[in-house]
Structure formats: C-alpha cells, structure tokens
TrEMBL record:
Stated family: Belongs to the Ycf4 family.
The protein's name in its UniProt record: Photosystem I assembly protein Ycf4
Pfam families per the UniProt record, alphabetical: Ycf4
GO cellular component, one term: chloroplast thylakoid membrane
Entry's localization field: Plastid thylakoid membrane; Plastid, Chloroplast thylakoid membrane
Annotated TM spans: 21-43, 63-87
GO biological processes: photosynthesis
General function of this protein: Seems to be required for the assembly of the photosystem I complex.
Entry membrane topology: Multi-pass membrane protein
Assigned keywords, A-Z: Chloroplast, Membrane, Photosynthesis, Plastid, Thylakoid, Transmembrane, Transmembrane helix
InterPro entries assigned: PSI_Ycf4_assembly
HAMAP family: Ycf4
C-alpha cells in the first residue's frame, strides 16, 4: 500500500474564497465614495469624480453619507481581516497508517486561534450526510463518533452538488470502513 491509500486530506477553504475578495473590495470602494461625498459636501470642495458633492447640503445628506461610508469602511476592514486570518480554513486528515483523524481549522485571533482536534479511527461509528433543501439549502457531511457526538466535515459556505457530496461521503465511509447514513 502506498501513502495515498493510507492518508487522505481534504482542504477546507475558509474565508479565502473569490466571493469574499470581491465583496470586500466592492464594499470598500463604495464606502470610500460615500465617505468622500459626505466630506466634500461639508467642505464644499469639488473633485472630478465627486462633482455633485458640492450641491449636497451637509445636513442631513452629507452627514448620513459620511456615516454610511464610515460603517462601510469598518465592515470592509473586518472582512479583509477575516480573509487575512482565513477564519474557517483548514483541513480534515484521515490517517490509516497511524490510526488517527485530525480536524484542523483556523479561528479568530486569540488563545483559541487554532482548532486542532484528534480522534482515533476506532471512535468513528459512521459517516452521516444531511441534505436540507429549500431557499438556503445545506449539504453537510458529519462524522459520527461514539457517544453520539457529530463533527461536521464540510466547510461553511462551500456549496457542493448532491453528486459531489454523495461521492465524497461514500469515498470517506469506504476509506474508514464505516457505514454511511442519510442517503
């Protein structure tokens, strides 16, 4: 047996998805425009891009635009920090060679920044798939452990097709030699 058949690692993307980069950038640019329009309505200065700012009265339009711009910049910075820290990113490692399972995720900065869980292969009872259809459909793979504990293995915000989730769950159940529930 080679190492590929003994060790499986599934990477979890976390916050470093294209959509997060996109929205953090769009919100930052829009918020900057709102803030600049509010400031220019107060100072009555004119810049080529913000030409109509001098026509706005500062109270209430300019003040509200400054407020919304400030909130948008704070939201964008928060989003950029999440991307930088890669909150929710990590991996699931299933190691038959040494007989353990490792679930690793990055969290928020602080003393619990690293979430690093170890389980033995003997603790796994089954793999369970949960499919919730509807407006906000969720497709999640859980690892059921002895003692009725369930650990989610799929990342949040990673929409997988039903075929992908079935394939991944059945491959994992076969690899761990446990039953597959929920399909």
């Amino acid at each position: 047996m080679n190492m590929e058949t003994l060790i499986r690692r599934y990477v979890i993307v976390g916050e470093r998805r294209f959509s997060n980069y996109w929205w953090a950038t769009v919100i930052l640019m829009g918020a900057f425009g709102f803030l600049m329009t509010g400031i220019l309505s107060y100072t009555k200065l004119s810049l080529p891009i913000f030409n109509t700012a001098k026509d706005l009265s500062f109270f209430p339009q300019g003040l509200l635009m400054s407020f919304y711009g400030s909130l948008g910049i704070l939201l964008s910075f928060y989003w950029w920090f999440l991307i930088f820290w890669n909150v929710g990113g990590g991996f699931n490692e299933f190691n038959k060679k040494d007989g353990f399972i490792r679930i690793f995720r990055w969290g928020y900065p602080g003393k619990n920044r690293k979430i690093d869980l170890y389980y033995t292969m003997k603790d796994v009872e089954s793999i369970r798939v949960e499919l919730n259809q509807g407006l906000d459909s969720q497709r999640t793979i859980y690892m059921k452990l002895k003692g009725k504990r369930e650990i989610p293995l799929t990342g949040i915000g990673q929409p997988l097709t039903i075929q992908e989730i079935e394939k991944q769950a059945s491959e994992l159940a076969n690899f761990l030699q446990v039953s597959l529930e929920g399909l």
